[in-house]
Design brief:
single chain, about 475 residues, alpha/beta, two-stranded parallel ribbon, about 45% helix
């Protein structure tokens, strides 16, 4: 019996030392203090679960560069011309636009591409129709990358179309996120590979739990056809956008791009392809010369653990901070870092018409609870908040002052800004802004606007539960 007690004591002491060492490691990484404190609290309050959770989703890989800068340069330094700010008539740009373009050029090496045409889609049916039409017309190559391929009706329609094009001799490359597309089975994947489609998973799970990078997911949505047509936005390949689910129909925003900005989407895909395949693709044929397709000026901006800066977040913060008339925000999850929250409050307190639209109910109850704790401070600053009730609002779109729009995969939360691999198009065009503004105002017809008095009248118990959820918000 004494031996059992001794062994138990030794085991307990060893475990405490491991927890203490993990806490020291977290603190020494000099992360965001709120995020570090959250992990420390989890390890202290629920040590066994907390330690396992830290091994799986808590390790900090940004400084290790999951995708190395050397790899990025190999793809980015391609023998083709790029349009940049020096070649743009800056007289037609406002100071706000010009400063934002410079920021994204410096923090992300994102060229400013001119001469683009932008088509905006706000429902699943039109989005899939446009993508499938482009794929059907492909003659050279198709590059497709999504967080979720659902292995459902629409995903299988896509599978059949990709198989058809591969058998016609079109080079098809597909990247799926291992975690997001967990429903894809061997039969689905094998049918693609047997037809000649090159399919790769992004960061597949490993058996060594201490080395897993499951927390770092590829949340990007990209389709490039023949290097001349590109798509990006927030939508995934899943039936919920066509037929709905228990939350109702999913409302999202996607863009079709023609013009030089497609090169930005192509570069992002090929960098990710180099990561999953370790094969460098720089052939100029993937970057055909584009004629002028429209009047849009576009930057394709990526972010993730491979970047030195929080690129998309910095761009959004800059755009909101410099707004003078209005800021309209769609986001399915609103768990903003302090600098984004401060930018929203500052803009609103400055007299800017700030409107935030979030779903009345999302697919993540814990995130919903955490989101509700942030709405009070937004309302206190004078911003207006709308709860979307006609299904699930999954759109990630922001429009500002009729001159800056951003559409992409990044949610307004810590995970998108710091952990996931994301992609957003920053668009400098009045027509695109007008389209997004109109869509936002139309969506308001399906919303309930909440007021500060009503919001503060919620029960203490409800608010306490939400506050507990907020403690875990940096970990979501």
């Amino acid at each position: 019996m004494d031996m059992v007690v001794i062994l138990s004591t030794i085991a307990y002491v060893v475990y405490i030392l491991i927890i203490a060492a993990t806490i020291v490691l977290i603190l020494s990484e000099n992360r965001n203090p709120v995020r570090s404190l959250s992990w420390v609290l989890v390890l202290i309050l629920i040590p066994v679960f907390g330690f396992v959770a830290y091994l799986i989703v808590g390790q900090y890989y940004r400084k290790q560069k999951i995708i190395s800068k050397k790899s990025i340069r190999k793809v980015a330094d391609r023998p083709i011309p790029e349009f940049d700010i020096e070649k743009i008539d800056t007289h037609v740009l406002s100071p706000q636009q010009l400063n934002l373009i410079k920021l994204l050029r410096r923090n992300n090496d994102a060229p400013a591409y001119r001469g683009n045409r932008i088509d905006v889609f706000t429902d699943g049916a039109s989005t899939f129709d446009a993508m499938f039409t482009a794929i059907e017309q492909a003659t050279k190559h198709i590059h497709i990358e999504f967080f979720i391929f659902g292995n459902d009706r629409i995903s299988n329609r896509l599978r059949e179309l990709l198989i058809k094009k591969a058998r016609q001799g079109v080079r098809v490359r597909m990247i799926y996120d291992y975690f997001g597309s967990f429903k894809l089975n061997k039969a689905y994947l094998n049918s693609l590979r047997e037809a000649g489609v090159y399919v790769r998973a992004f960061l597949p799970a490993r058996f060594k739990i201490a080395r897993t990078k499951i927390n770092y997911r590829n949340h990007r949505k990209i389709l490039v056809v023949d290097g001349i047509i590109g798509f990006t936005g927030g939508l995934n390949v899943a039936d919920r956008y066509l037929y709905g689910n228990k939350l109702g129909m999913w409302r999202d925003t996607f863009v079709r791009i023609e013009g030089m900005a497609v090169q930005g989407l192509q570069t992002s895909f090929l960098i990710d392809w180099y990561f999953v395949e370790q094969k460098l693709i720089t052939d100029p044929k993937y970057y055909p010369v584009h004629s002028v397709a429209g009047d849009n000026l576009v930057q394709i901006v990526t972010s993730g653990p491979d970047s030195d800066w929080e690129n998309i977040m910095q761009g959004i913060m800059q755009a909101i901070t410099t707004a003078t008339r209005y800021v309209y925000i769609h986001t399915p999850y609103f768990i903003p870092p302090e600098n984004i929250l401060g930018a929203i409050q500052t803009a609103s307190l400055s007299g800017v018409d700030v409107r935030l639209m979030v779903p009345a109910k999302s697919d993540a109850p814990l995130s919903d609870a955490a989101t509700r704790t942030y709405l009070e401070t937004v309302l206190e600053s004078g911003a207006r908040v709308f709860l979307y009730r006609d299904g699930f609002l999954h759109s990630k779109a922001i429009v500002i002052d009729d001159m800056v729009s951003t559409i992409g995969s990044a949610n307004m939360d810590e995970r998108s800004y710091n952990q996931n691999f994301e992609i957003n198009a920053f668009i400098y065009d009045e027509q695109t802004a007008a389209t997004l503004k109109s869509a936002f105002l139309k969506d308001m017809e399906h919303c309930t606007e909440i007021t500060l008095d009503v919001w503060c009248s919620r029960s203490r118990w409800e608010r306490f539960k939400e506050s507990i959820a907020r403690l875990f918000s940096p970990l979501m």
